[in-house]
Model the fold of this input.
Amino acid sequence: MPKDVIVACDFESKEKTLAFLDLFTDEKPFVKIGMELYYAEGPAIVRELKARGHKIFLDLKLHDIPNTVKKTMAVLSKLDVDIVNLHAAGTTAMMQAALEGLTRPDGTRPLLIAVTMLTSTDQAAMERDLLIKEPIAGVVLHYAETAKNAGLDGVVCSPLEARAVHARCGEGFLTVTPGVRFADAEKGDQKRVMTPADAGKAGSDYIVVGRPITAAPDPVAAYRRCVKEFIEA
Ligand code: C5P
Done:
């Protein structure tokens, strides 16, 4: 099973992104391109980072009718990214259509993972706005299992949920987990966090780390510390 640190490149421009990545001379971090950077710079930023040798998690969280998602995934697949994602709330038909669109003529495809319930949604909001009355932990596991049954490769979840997701969906089902902070750091706006070492022990396959690396006084040192703590866990 792969185990790696994915650096969330939450920058608003190509210039800021490249200035950050230029700090790394000895390693090529796996990077996450989210909506902010993708909508600012378009597919060119994906091609550029790929050409520089980075693995890419394209975090666009698709959620639309199956036909639209299928056709969009076919476009993203041509960008040759390593991981893409969607919302499990789009249901099984959408997830299966996404897999079809993503699969290239030679049978290869990027990994496809699902967002379950956003970690910004709490029990009260889920009940009030979505009319889902089950306990949220069970809803997350149900969404993960639905994604697995649709043929997806894993989920984005809290490291606090990784163990339960593996127990329900199998060890081979990937858990990609944001919400990671060093033991001696501020949490920022993340409420439920784990250290890289604890996320590793909890069974996270990939941790997604943004500000603890991008906003560190020495981002390369912070990245190396993160990799060491996570991989050695
Ligand atoms: O800076 P920080 O380490 O909090 O960045 C975490 C990254 O993971 C951000 O890009 C954020 O959008 C993303 N993310 C998250 N929580 C989720 C899903 C995605 O923090 N549930």
Observations:
- The pocket of cytidine-5'-monophosphate is lined by residues 8, 10, 34, 118-119, 156, 178-179, 190, 208-212 (CB under 6 Å).
- DSSP finds eleven helices and eight strands in the chain.
